[in-house]
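seq:
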Amino acid sequence: MMWIGVACAVAGAFFLAFGAQRQGSAVQSNTGGLALGSNGFLRLLRNPRWVLGLVLLGLGMVLNVVALTLGTLVVIQPIGAIALVITTIVNSKDQGIRLNRATVVAITCCVTGSALFVLLAVNVVSENHHVTVEQELTVVFMLAIVVAIFGTALILWRHHIRAFFYILGAGVLFGFVAVLTRIISKQIFDPNGLYLLNVQWYSIIAIAVAGGLGSWFVQSAYASGPPDLVIAGLTVIDPMVGIAIGITILGELRPDVPAVVAISMAGAALLAIVGVVALSRHHPDVVKRKNESAKDLKKSART
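struct:
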């Protein structure tokens, strides 16, 4: 069963990678690198390439759920980082972009750091079978603060926001979505037999808001950055946020965690984050956009 789970995880990573690349190229062609508005989103719904990407992403999510059902988290979760490598290769060939050394190093840091962080975290957490009302409300309250911060920044500095902002926001929001999904699933399958009656209304609203805003951020990131950069942010930030909340709020950290493991986790997280930041600065597509913007500024200055 474990090997079937591994196969599903690998297949899911491929679907995720190709789906992200299809959607990313569709958004780029529809917006021309400009901010994604409501009219642009409606046009995407009629774009066959974007819809195909949505279907592929959906299949990838289903396969990942099956993989996590058949295999252990320690084996399955790091496999998702394969999507970053696949997306980078596919997008570079599709756009005719030659990857520079800085990009390769950045991707290596992302994949290595995120995989090490997840592996170390899973090995030092203890299963928490019951989530208290206080813990659930704390997660929802933290999410409200996060939504307020990103929402305010989006309103005040919308025209000055770069791709990294959207990627960071999507990763953080989907990290909360993962935590709330875990909480709700535990409530549904609670042994008391109440099923959906255990689910709190504020958690439903919270997961809907986080998922909706996170999805909007992903599409906006596609409009202002390459799809492999988007996948890099999601495969690094999303699991780290989810695991961090699980450890600090839900009490899933074992009390006997060795100091060397804790330091290693912090180092792995830092390595992955540095990789994402480096990718956002040195990716060939990003460098090309900066050069084009500099040329446009020089032309406008001369005129």
